[in-house]
């Protein structure tokens, strides 16, 4: 039948049917159209040529922090609207960076990028506005009722939001409604033209139809590009303000949070002790209000989840509107059959929404599990030195892997739910087509061809609207939990005093005196006043009781007390970090009636016991953001005795210190913090927590005389926490003694030192020395620095920290990870998915066959075609589900393996060659943000890219097989041009992505600096400076992200759309010029596919570029799988030197009986185990032949315990059992424990090797060692020998190599030459884990991990609870642990924040008491412990380590006077050695000089 023409179609029909003009006009139109495109393409390619890369140079770009009122896009728009639409300004970047895939030629740094957005959109300005709006919201609705949803519209501006929604709606109209109208009119005209040719035998005049075709088909990409450009520009504005504003607000909030130690304080003897509500409520917060990790919030929630959030809201609204409009259009064509479509569509959409909601819940669970892993990983990386020294790599790796396994479990549920959702979406449009055509056929009979293909386009658009609504709704739903997490962080309780944001009534701030007036006004007025009772929490128990302290201007005050007495807490009270206990409250009922009052200057120099060292150079950490005053800086370095350290540091004062000063010793970190306090010009009082604990006696004397009493602190109030030392105290103006949070004594040093409270702190055995004054060898004048030296040292410093590598994804890398995911999974997915796409094409071909049949026979039956269509649709859906499962298995295996492989390699990397060169922020960024991208996006992006390729190639192959051959030939140059444009864009995107990642590393470094040091930042009043630095760092990352994901994508979409429109238009022109050779159904299917590809250009490009980003993330993770490694953890020949703990099933011991006498064990009546000579262990009986004797025989009785069976089987004859369960040190007790029948499933057996069984003989021969690739040796030709069970003191000035010597013994630092022998065994011939397990270390900086106390003491579960409690008793922590309701299950806060520094040191000592190693290394292990407790600890060392060789680094020399031997190091060499009794009286000797220096105090 002949279709009825619309008005538009009638206008396109020829006026004179019988007239056929010449081809000249039509040829002219084609030539003109072709010429226009060729010229456009030439201009496009010329703009991308390297010759055009000389645009705005780096010197013209704005300096960091200096932003213009207009950005590069606004400048281009003002010059030319057409250039703005073409994104011409980005062509310069593509010309500059897109010409090569070579990493060396295309590196992009943040300062190379232009400004995106005006000044008001930048991070600092957006964050400041958001903070102000949040404060208004909190004031209006209260903290609980405040919501970011109310704040964000005010940040963006409702006008911009409405414009964005309108533009999105117009674009959706173009993509969906205009496409329907276009295909309907085009096919109507083609059908009319076919009928006309059949009637007349010739083509009519096609000039007007050709012009109309060019205009109509070119308008679709033009309008799409126009609205996409406007929408992308507005989306840039929204995202830039949202991401920057939230990140800045969170960073500012982190600076206002209370210190970590406020968690879990308890009343009583140990102020730093905690209760078991450690991780529960603070300030009334419920357990549901879980505090989230700041790094996770910024790296994941903000930068990965929130971009495009308002766009998702607009898509939800606009897709609903489009849905109803399309439904109306469908009703016009299908009438009542539309109801059939609705009956199919509504349940499917509802199911999709429900599934999306379930997926969002799974994602929330996944995010929470990510938080836990990231927290654990950060702790391990910050404590990596201790992890390695204890050989705990495997335990920490297992802990992180278990947390990762929980993530993978959630990820698997996410992918399974997503697979079902995707399967519905992919089958949904064709199901709608089938239901609509079946309904129309059942109700009205046959349809015409135009109606069929028009309905196909409408139903496809309807499917697109439903998909867009469901996917956008799922994003909005997932956006909700993310916003809630950010809200919860912003709603956390803050510190009591946050200047200038909150100053409570009980706080009086005073402006400190100018430096020149301090000395004259000293002691005339109170600089600090603290009165009242204070608690860490507003409703918590008191921690400081009845304080009434007034410190005069310029006064030098010492704070003394036992471990846990509240010394550090007192400093927090002075800083305003504690809450006053309200008089009359339940907590304050038993307290004094003194009203709380705090008077202090606005800015205080605070040096905590764990010094704050930020990522940067030594000079940066001293100057701390202030203007550089070279003379003052040199004086500060001199007074802090850092001059000699700077000389030996690689890079001098320009040496990069790393996060938390990982490259410095404990003493160096403390002195850098003290130099900062001296240099800081605007601070008045100075609070220093234990400045002498980490330095030797001469250096301590130098610090006291030149720093605390020197010119730089003259007239400043100084409050110093320290250990009791009579000679030092005499130089103080006043002394305070604390006990259990109360001031027991205060007054002049002479008075206080006569009190019982002071005597209680002293060791019962005191030793005095007399002799000359020995000062540290430091220059007498401040350091003079020359520019040449500065540049040289700065250059040398770069050698200590590597730039972030920018590799490229390679085929070898991809092959490795394909192997991890399994080749068969990937190949099955690719093949089955390709088959599914082909089956979908078969469905479409069924429609083509139906329509062509209808054209020949209008009365042909519809049923075979409809049933065939439904059959192939079902097959396609089934193949999709199979393909998705193979793909899911593939990506889950990669996610699980790549993380565990990277962590495994990182934990086994050497300290000096990896961790000292890679900032922790960079490592965390890769193992958090990059791993997150691989988890959630790698497979989806890869699948999307592959789907794009397959769904493009297969339909295009079909098009080329049915269209004339010359169209295929003409399309080849077009494909080449599109490929060239895409290649240039990808080459630019790769270095941009690396720029994003490296910028995020700087952001992570800033976050890491503030996470645990916000108290220091508040004290120095540096919040604004650090916030500004953070805003610049985040702005760099945000700019790179927006350019990569918005601007360059827009540049690419606009150009590909322009090129593709030429092909689409040409195809239809060829169709109407060859109307007599092409069927209407054939052309209809071709044009439908081409127009669908036109509409899908943006999402397809986003998928393909997104896949490139994921491969870059994979390459960054891959880099950490090939980092340098330490020597093997264990070697095959280690077995005879390896001790172990075996968990033997109790049932395997049933055949054992007690031997006569009770000191042996029989097996089947034969001697099995017997007592050692000293009756302290069980050894294999002499009759037990074989390598392992009885132990190897016992292995055969453990068939179900593979690990225990393997360990026991490898045991040799000299292995012995030293503990069985709770039985330790007695062969008889162990024998009874082995032979008794018990209810427990397993029995713990501690099996020790005969190597080092009676102590370790240490022999060091010609030892030379240094760090990484630096040429300087820190140890130079050391030759030492220590006999078994000898106690050796290692002394020397700070930086002389004492700690380095211990690290060499542990092989944390590998020798460059020479040997270290333990009982004649070269330590180089052992695996590092075997060696470190035989040696114990108590470090200077105690490291604890979040988790239970038991896990911190025994992460391998090698000891019983009884043994652990005994160890705690020996280090005098029993009272503290008994005060916790959960005992050993008590939760230790992050980094041990709920214990005092001294208590943390004792916990670390308890670890060694448990292990009782043959060689014990003490690195100033009791620096924070008072002399009284130190004496008890000394007794513990004598009692618990009788059979051990002990090497102790000691600055408090009185702690090692009872040792057998002493070694003094100087500049990496042995200055002297001998017995302590000889060296302490040797005239002119080094040790004597150090003792004399202390004795003269």
Description of the structure:
The structure is a single chain. 53% of the residues are buried. With 1497 residues, the chain is α/β, with parallel strands linked by helices. It has a six-stranded mixed sheet, with helices on both faces. Strands 25-28-29-22-30-31 form a six-stranded mixed sheet, sandwiched between helices. The radius of gyration is 38 Å and the shape is elongated. 56% of the residues lie in helices and 10% in strands. Residues 1-22, 54-64, 261-290, 516-523, 586-590, 767-802 and 1184-1188 have low confidence and may be disordered. It has 48 helices and 31 strands.
The biggest sheet, with number of strands, parallel, antiparallel or mixed sense and barrel status, is:
6 strands, mixed
| Class by alpha and beta content | alpha/beta
Instruction: Report helical residue fraction.
Output: 55-70%
By DSSP (H or I, 4+ residues per run), the number of helices equals: 48
Strand percent estimate: 5-15%
Note the overall shape.
elongated
Secondary structure topology:
Layout: H1 7-12, H2 24-47, H3 72-79, H4 81-85, H5 91-97, H6 123-145, H7 148-156, H8 158-200, H9 207-256, H10 294-305, H11 309-334, H12 337-382, H13 384-389, H14 393-444, H15 449-490, E1 507-510, H16 515-521, E2 526-535, E3 544-552, E4 556-561, H17 567-575, E5 579-580, E6 597-601, E7 605-607, H18 618-623, H19 630-639, H20 643-648, H21 666-679, E8 686-689, H22 697-708, E9 718-721, H23 726-729, E10 734-739, E11 742-747, H24 749-752, H25 756-761, H26 787-797, H27 811-821, H28 823-856, H29 863-907, H30 911-915, H31 920-962, H32 965-1011, H33 1014-1020, H34 1023-1073, H35 1080-1095, H36 1097-1119, E12 1140-1145, E13 1152-1154, E14 1160-1163, E15 1166-1171, E16 1178-1180, H37 1190-1195, H38 1202-1210, E17 1216-1220, E18 1223-1224, H39 1227-1235, E19 1242-1248, E20 1258-1265, E21 1275-1282, E22 1287-1292, H40 1298-1305, E23 1313-1318, E24 1321-1322, H41 1328-1334, E25 1335-1338, E26 1347-1348, H42 1349-1353, H43 1361-1370, H44 1374-1378, E27 1387-1388, H45 1397-1411, E28 1415-1419, H46 1427-1440, E29 1445-1449, E30 1461-1466, E31 1469-1475, H47 1476-1479, H48 1486-1495
Parallel strand pairs: 1-6, 4-9, 4-10, 7-8, 8-9, 22-29, 22-30, 25-28, 28-29
Antiparallel strand pairs: 2-3, 2-5, 2-6, 10-11, 12-19, 13-14, 14-15, 15-16, 17-18, 17-19, 20-21, 20-23, 23-24, 26-27, 30-31
Helix pairs in contact: 2-9, 5-32, 6-7, 6-9, 8-9, 8-11, 8-15, 8-35, 9-10, 9-34, 10-15, 10-31, 11-15, 12-14, 12-15, 12-31, 14-15, 14-29, 15-35, 19-21, 27-29, 28-29, 28-31, 28-35, 29-31, 31-32, 31-35, 31-36, 32-34, 32-36, 34-35, 34-36, 43-45
């Amino acid at each position: 039948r002949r279709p009825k023409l619309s008005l538009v179609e009638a206008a396109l029909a020829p006026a004179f049917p019988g007239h056929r003009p010449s081809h000249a006009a039509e040829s002219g139109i084609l030539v003109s159209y072709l010429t226009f495109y060729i010229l456009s393409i030439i201009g496009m390619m010329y703009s991308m040529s390297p010759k055009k890369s000389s645009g705005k140079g780096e010197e013209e770009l704005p300096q960091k922090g200096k932003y213009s009122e207009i950005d590069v896009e606004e400048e281009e728009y003002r010059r030319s609207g057409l250039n703005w639409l073409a994104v011409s300004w980005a062509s310069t970047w593509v010309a500059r960076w897109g010409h090569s895939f070579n990493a060396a030629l295309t590196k992009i740094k943040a300062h190379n990028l232009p400004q995106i957005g005006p000044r008001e959109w930048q991070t600092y300005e957006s964050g400041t506005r958001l903070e102000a709006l949040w404060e208004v919201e909190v004031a209006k609705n209260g903290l609980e009722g405040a919501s970011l949803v109310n704040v964000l519209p005010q940040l963006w501006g409702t006008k911009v939001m409405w414009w964005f929604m309108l533009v999105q709606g117009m674009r959706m109209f173009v993509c969906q409604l205009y496409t329907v109208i276009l295909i309907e009119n085009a096919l109507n005209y083609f059908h009319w033209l076919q009928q006309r040719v059949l009637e007349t035998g010739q083509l009519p005049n096609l000039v007007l139809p050709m012009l109309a075709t060019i205009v109509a088909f070119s308008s679709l990409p033009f309008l799409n590009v126009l609205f996409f450009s406007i929408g992308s520009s507005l989306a840039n504005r929204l995202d830039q303000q949202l991401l920057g504003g939230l990140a800045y607000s969170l960073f500012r909030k982190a600076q206002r949070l209370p210190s970590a130690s406020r968690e879990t304080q308890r009343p009583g003897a140990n102020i730093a002790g905690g209760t078991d509500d450690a991780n529960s409520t603070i300030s009334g917060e419920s357990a549901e209000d879980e505090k989230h990790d700041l790094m996770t919030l910024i790296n994941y929630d903000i930068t990965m989840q929130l971009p495009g959030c308002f766009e998702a809201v607009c898509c939800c609204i606009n897709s609903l509107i489009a849905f109803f409009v399309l439904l109306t259009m469908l009703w016009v064509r299908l009438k009542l059959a539309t109801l059939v479509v609705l009956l199919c569509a509504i349940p499917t959409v509802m199911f999709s929404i429900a599934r999306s909601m379930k997926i969002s819940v799974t994602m929330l669970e996944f995010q929470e599990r990510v938080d836990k892993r990231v927290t654990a990983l950060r702790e391990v990386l910050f404590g990596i030195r201790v992890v390695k020294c204890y050989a705990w790599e495997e335990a920490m790796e297992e802990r992180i892997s278990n947390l990762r396994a929980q993530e993978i479990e959630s990820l698997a549920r996410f992918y399974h739910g997503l697979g079902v959702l995707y399967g519905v979406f992919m089958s949904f449009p064709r199901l709608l087509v089938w239901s609509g055509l079946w309904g129309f056929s059942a109700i009205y009979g046959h349809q015409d061809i135009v109606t069929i293909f028009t309905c196909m386009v409408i139903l496809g658009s309807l499917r697109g609207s439903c998909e867009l609504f469901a996917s956008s709704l799922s994003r909005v739903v997932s956006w909700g939990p993310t916003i809630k997490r950010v809200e919860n962080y912003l709603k956390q309780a803050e510190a009591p005093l946050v200047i200038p944001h909150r100053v409570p009534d009980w706080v009086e701030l005073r402006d400190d005196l100018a430096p020149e007036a301090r000395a004259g006004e000293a002691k005339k007025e109170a600089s600090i006043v603290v009165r009242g009772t204070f608690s860490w929490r507003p409703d918590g128990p008191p921690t400081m009781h009845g304080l009434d302290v007034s410190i005069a201007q310029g006064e030098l005050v010492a704070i003394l007390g036992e471990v846990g007495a509240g010394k550090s807490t007192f400093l927090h009270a002075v800083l305003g970090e504690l809450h006053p206990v309200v008089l009359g409250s339940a907590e304050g009922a038993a307290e004094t009636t003194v009203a709380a009052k705090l008077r202090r200057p606005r800015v205080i120099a605070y040096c905590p016991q764990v010094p704050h060292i930020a990522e940067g150079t030594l000079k940066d950490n001293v100057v701390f953001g202030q203007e550089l005053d070279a003379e003052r800086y040199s004086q500060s370095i001199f007074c802090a005795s850092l001059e000699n350290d700077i000389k030996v540091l690689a890079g001098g004062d320009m040496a990069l210190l790393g996060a938390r000063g990982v490259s410095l010793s404990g003493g160096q970190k403390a002195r850098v913090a003290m130099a900062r306090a001296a240099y800081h010009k605007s601070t008045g009082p100075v609070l220093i927590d234990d400045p002498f604990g980490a330095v030797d006696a001469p250096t301590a004397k130098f610090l006291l005389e030149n720093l605390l009493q020197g010119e730089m602190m003259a007239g400043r109030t100084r409050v110093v926490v320290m250990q009791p030392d009579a000679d030092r105290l005499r130089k103080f103006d006043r002394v305070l003694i604390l006990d259990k949070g109360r001031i027991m004594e205060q007054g002049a040093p002479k008075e206080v030192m006569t009190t019982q409270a002071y005597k209680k702190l002293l060791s019962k055995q005191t030793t005095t020395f007399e002799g000359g004054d020995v000062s540290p060898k430091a220059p007498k004048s401040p350091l003079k620095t020359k520019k040449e030296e500065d540049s040289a040292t700065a250059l040398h410093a770069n050698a200590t920290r590597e730039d972030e590598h920018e590799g490229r994804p390679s085929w070898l890398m991809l092959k490795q990870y394909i192997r991890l995911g399994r080749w068969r999974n990937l190949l099955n997915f690719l093949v089955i998915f390709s088959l599914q796409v082909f089956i979908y094409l078969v469905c479409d071909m069924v429609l083509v066959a139906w329509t062509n049949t209808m054209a020949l026979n209008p009365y042909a039956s519809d049923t075979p075609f409809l049933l065939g269509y439904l059959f192939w649709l079902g097959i396609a859906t089934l193949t999709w589900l199979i393909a998705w499962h193979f793909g899911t298995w593939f990506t889950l295996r990669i996610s699980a393996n790549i993380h565990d492989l990277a962590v495994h390699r990182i934990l086994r990397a050497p300290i000096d060659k990896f961790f000292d060169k890679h900032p922790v922020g960079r490592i965390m960024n890769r193992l958090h943000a990059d791993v997150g991208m691989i988890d959630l996006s790698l497979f989806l992006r890869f699948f999307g890219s592959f789907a794009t390729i397959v769904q493009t190639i297969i339909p295009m192959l079909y098009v080329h097989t049915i269209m004339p051959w010359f169209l295929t030939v003409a399309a080849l140059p077009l494909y080449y041009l599109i490929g060239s444009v895409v290649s240039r864009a990808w080459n630019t995107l790769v270095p941009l992505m690396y720029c994003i990642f490296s910028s995020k590393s700087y952001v992570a470094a800033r976050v890491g600096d503030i996470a645990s040091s916000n108290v220091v930042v508040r004290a120095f009043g540096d919040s604004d400076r650090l916030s500004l630095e953070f805003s610049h760092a985040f702005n760099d990352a945000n700019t790179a992200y927006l350019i990569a994901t918005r601007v360059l994508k827009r540049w690419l979409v606009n150009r590909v759309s322009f090129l593709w429109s030429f092909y689409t238009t040409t195809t239809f022109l060829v169709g109407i010029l060859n109307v007599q050779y092409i069927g209407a159904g054939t052309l209809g299917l071709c044009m439908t596919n081409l127009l669908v590809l036109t509409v899908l250009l943006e999402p397809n490009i986003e998928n393909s570029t997104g896949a490139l980003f994921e491969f870059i993330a994979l390459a960054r993770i891959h880099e950490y799988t090939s980092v340098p490694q330490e020597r093997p953890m264990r070697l095959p020949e280690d077995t005879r030197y390896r001790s172990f703990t075996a968990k033997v099933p109790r049932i395997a011991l049933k055949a054992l009986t007690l031997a006569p006498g009770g000191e042996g064990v029989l097996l089947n009546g034969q001697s099995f185990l017997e007592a050692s000579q000293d009756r302290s262990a069980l050894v294999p009986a002499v009759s037990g032949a074989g390598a392992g004797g009885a132990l190897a025989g016992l292995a055969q009785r453990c068939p179900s315990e593979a690990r225990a069976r393997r360990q026991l089987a490898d045991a040799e004859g000299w292995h012995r059992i030293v503990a069985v369960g709770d039985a330790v040190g007695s062969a008889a007790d162990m024998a009874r424990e082995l032979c008794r029948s018990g209810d427990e499933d397993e029995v713990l057996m501690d099996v020790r090797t005969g190597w080092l069984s009676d102590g370790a003989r240490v022999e060091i021969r010609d030892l030379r060692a240094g760090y990484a690739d630096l040429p300087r040796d820190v140890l130079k030709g050391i030759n030492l020998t220590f006999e078994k069970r000898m106690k050796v003191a290692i002394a020397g000035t700070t930086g002389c190599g004492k700690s380095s010597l211990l690290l060499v013994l542990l092989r944390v630092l590998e020798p460059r030459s020479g040997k270290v022998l333990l009982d004649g065994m070269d330590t180089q011939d052992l695996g590092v884990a075997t060696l470190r397990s035989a040696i114990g270390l108590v470090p200077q900086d105690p490291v604890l991990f979040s988790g239970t106390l038991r896990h911190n003491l025994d992460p391998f579960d090698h000891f019983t609870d009884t043994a652990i409690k005994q160890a705690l008793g020996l280090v005098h922590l029993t009272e503290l642990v008994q005060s916790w309701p959960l005992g050993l299950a008590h939760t230790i806060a992050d980094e041990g924040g709920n214990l005092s520094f001294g208590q943390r040191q004792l916990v670390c000592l308890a670890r060694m008491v448990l292990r009782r190693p043959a060689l014990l290394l003490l690195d100033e292990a009791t620096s924070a412990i008072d002399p009284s407790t130190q004496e008890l600890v000394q007794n513990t060392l004598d009692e618990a380590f009788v059979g051990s060789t002990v090497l102790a680094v000691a600055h408090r020399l009185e702690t090692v006077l009872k040792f057998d031997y002493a070694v003094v190091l100087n500049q990496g060499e042995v200055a002297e050695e001998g017995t302590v009794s000889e060296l302490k009286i040797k005239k002119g000797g080094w040790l004597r000089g150090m003792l004399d220096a202390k004795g003269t105090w």
